[in-house]
Each structure stands twice: as structure tokens, then as C-alpha cells.
Sequence to fold (242 residues):
Amino acid sequence: MRLALLADIHANAPALDAVLAHARHERVDLVIGLGDIVGNSAMPRETIALMRDHGIESVAGNHDLAAIGRLSLDLAGPRAREVLEWTRASLTEDEWRYLAELPLELAPRPGLLCLHAGFSDPVAKLRTADDFRDQARLIREYDPRVSLCALGHTHLPGVVSVVGSEVYLYPGPVADLPAEGFHFLNPGSVGDLTMRDPRAVYATVDLDTRRVRFFRVPYDRGAVLSANTRQRTTTHLLEQTA
Fold:
């Protein structure tokens, strides 16, 4: 079975649309979202609609939870807070409910666990070898069958493998998962507008061959940048008249 893993879309609907078209061309069997569907850009409703129209299961990210008031906006930077406040006011009741019903973890196949960040912690950032060792231990205690954890949050694509006490990084664009050890797969960010490379990033994993591929997909950045400009202008005008 071949999965497409999408993380950190951040309300960038054109990027998501392009990635889904690419994933269809790659003939994946299932698409899984790893959270942060909204936040950072000004197309949350369009992005949620794409996720729902394509029947994509997803976990909740910290931006999704902040958008519905389950996490404090103080955890975000100034621009992110501004967009999240605007997003809160823009969502319909049905879209709010959609975000509220996203789980913190998914187990779409035996041996695979999907999270946004850390286990039971949607804001954790795994940076050091000890961070990955600790997470592997926590997840194995939760479910000893799991040997692959898909997660996002850092926007950094790659595979990190914990084999015994050693930790290895495989940055891609192709990585073959070793048969032994515990593996973390971050597909990168679909919708990050701040990265030097302007393309959307996602990954596929073949659960039979254990091969991971990372893809960079061009898309129409102008549409989301225009939406962001309109949002900023509206927000600042409202602030001036308040």
C-alpha cells in the first residue's frame, strides 16, 4: 500500500490542490493529513473544503486547535496570531466543528502512527537525538507494534531512524526505511510561504517496500498571496476604525 502524507498546509488552498493532483498522478492508495490545516494564510475555508471533498483523514495541529480556542494564541508569533484571530471569525459553525473533531492521532495501518508533533503534545518540536529517542520510547510504550511515526510541525522533510541508541537522518529525496529500529517521517510543509524553495512539499511511503519519496510541487502562489494581502488590509482597516 502506498500512502501520501501531507502536513502543515496552513490554509494554502492552491498548494493543497496542486499536491492532491500530483498524488493522484502518483497513484497513491490513501492520503493522510498530519495537521495544521489552517493558520498562516487566508484561505482556511477553501482548504477545509478541499480536505473534506477528497475525504482526507487528518490529525489536529496546533494551529487548528488555536483557531478554535483550544490552544492559546500566545503560543504563536504576531503574524500567526493575527491570521488565527481572523480565521476564528471567518469559520462557519460547520467548519469549526470539523476542526474540533480532528483527533490527536491516527493509526491508519498496523505499525503506523500519525501525529502532528509529539505524542499527545501538538506543540512539541523534535530537534535533538534525545528528543527522538524519548518519543520512540513513549510511542512504543503506547503501542509496541508501531515502528513508523508520521508527523509534521517543523516543516523539515526527512526520515529520522532510531536504531538501538543511534539516531540517523535521511533527508531524501528518496529514503529506504531500515528493517530494524523506529522511524519518524516528516513530509515537510505543503503550504509554507516562507521557505526559500517556493514549491509545496509532501511525501509518499510504500508500506510494502518501505521506500519513502519526497516531492516538491509547483503551484499558483499568486492566489494565496493575494488572499493574504486582502486579509491584512481588512484587518488593519478594522483596527483603525475600532
Notes: Residues 2-241 form a domain with the Purple Acid Phosphatase; chain A, domain 2 fold (CATH 3.60.21.10). The chain has a mean pLDDT of 95. Residues 61 and 190 are 14 Å apart (CA to CA).
